[in-house]
Specification:
There is one protein chain. With 297 residues, this protein is of the alpha/beta class. Helices cover 55% and strands 13% of the residues. It is built from 14 helices and nine strands. The strands form two sheets. It has a six-stranded parallel β-sheet, sandwiched between helices. It has a three-stranded mixed β-sheet with strand order 7-8-9. It starts with 7 loop residues before the first strand and ends in a 5-residue tail after the last helix. Belongs to the HIBADH-related family.
């Protein structure tokens, strides 16, 4: 383990955070993790990291703090207050928030952190659980160029496409656009699947040939097996995509951008969640189309 690499504190070891933090360990970083579930801390320790008993304990000696939690309220809960990150880190620490939250939350966090002498990047990701495990995530970053340059080697251990998109909040804005495109794409694929099946076509063959042409997409490549096997074990939960569609519709309204199709898909995601499917993978939008098409789900 190289001693000149920055010491990393990792807060949030969920579906994404666990494999991402383990990839940093593999890259030679000393990673101290904290999350609410002890078994997830144990998993990081088993992979060669360290466990912490609290946020304060995790971040005290860190050069870089990375957070990966579900939404804005959780980011605020771990960042602020006497037991939070900002009260317990050293001045000059770099805080990289990789959660998907509202752009405004990121802007506010950067402003609050600056008063404490803490540098911040918002760096949400796309690629889902598979992208996290394979370290091929797309990482969209908002913040200062110098902080981005400092973080780049570390981000290179987590993803493949890493781009500074502009000032604080810009990473979150691009992530919101990403979630809009992904949701609409999954919905289109789901509608095609139901149409193909009801037409009596060999679904596997149809999806293969469609994915080889202009209709092909990373979404179809990643989610094809989910559709074929009706396997909706969560890589990215409907609950989280529901949160993200709220972010993008709200942010779009604030800037005066119309999202006619996005608005419809946001409602379809919301209805799927209301039907009790919030814990399923977002490819379960297929279930919504099946219900609308008269199938028993």
């Amino acid at each position: 383990m190289s001693s000149n690499l920055p010491k990393v504190a990792w807060i949030g070891l969920g579906i994404m955070g666990s494999p991402m933090s383990e990839n940093l360990v593999k890259a030679g970083y000393q990673v101290t993790g904290y999350t609410l579930e002890q078994d997830k801390i144990d998993r990081l320790v088993a992979a060669g990291g360290k466990g912490a008993a609290s946020i304060a304990d995790a971040v005290r000696d860190a050069d870089v703090v990375i957070t990966m939690v579900p939404a804005s309220p959780q980011v605020e809960a771990i960042a602020y207050g006497p037991d939070g990150i900002l009260e317990n880190v050293r001045q000059g620490t770099l805080l990289i928030d990789m959660s998907s939250i509202t752009p405004q939350t990121s802007v506010d966090l950067a402003s609050s952190a600056k008063k404490k002498g803490v540098r911040v990047l918002d760096a949400p990701v796309s690629g889902g659980e598979a992208g996290a495990i394979e370290a091929v995530l797309s990482i969209m970053v908002g913040g200062e160029q110098t902080d981005f340059d400092a973080a780049k080697p570390l981000l290179d251990a987590l993803g493949k496409t890493i781009v500074l998109c502009g000032p604080h909040g810009s990473g979150q804005t691009v992530k919101a656009a990403n979630q809009l495109i992904v949701a609409v794409n999954i919905q289109a694929c789901a509608e095609a699947v139901v149409f193909l099946e009801k037409s009596g076509v060999d679904l596997a063959a149809a999806l293969d040939v469609l994915n080889g042409g202009l209709a092909g997409s990373t979404v179809l490549t990643r989610k094809k097996d989910n559709f074929l096997k009706r396997d909706f074990a969560p890589g990215f939960r409907i609950d989280l995509h529901h949160k993200d569609m709220g972010i993008v519709t709200d942010a779009a309204r604030n800037v005066g951008a119309a999202l006619p199709v996005g608005g419809v898909v946001a409602q379809l995601v919301a209805s799927l969640r209301a039907q009790g499917d919030g814990g399923l993978d977002h490819s379960a939008l297929l279930r919504s189309v099946e219900r609308l098409s008269g199938s028993q789900v």
